[in-house]
# Entry
Amino acid sequence: TTRILGIGAFMLSAGTAVTLAGVEANSVALAGAGTVIAGAGFGASGLASFGTLSRLAASGERSELFAAALVIAYLAFSLPALAAGLASTSLGLHITAVIYGIGVVALGFLALAAQGLRSARLERQQPGHASSPVSDDDVTEDS
# Structure
């Protein structure tokens, strides 16, 4: 799961950067290719995230956890989109899309860096002394 999250975050960030390059170069093919890459990264990240969440909760509590996670996710998608829509009326669509895309790229690489720091911290800890609710045994590099 950790590896999939890392790959997904990288693909989301890189794909968005390729999409921005396509927007700047007026290349529909490049923007489309970037969108496909970013979409694959987004899907992989979502799958890995919900896989991790499913292991954290007991079977009778998973629906509640997923419902809360989905509410947070929908807010995380809709509020920036609404803000971008409002910003586009004064900044223009092109500038707004570039700023929004740069934000997505930055946040994706920030998430990747945070995951790397967390993984390094877990590797330094002795087995059985994990400070996180997800131990090394729960998060494997294979999944």
User: Anything to note?
Assistant: Residues 15 and 37 are 5 Å apart (CA to CA). The longest helix spans residues 93-124.
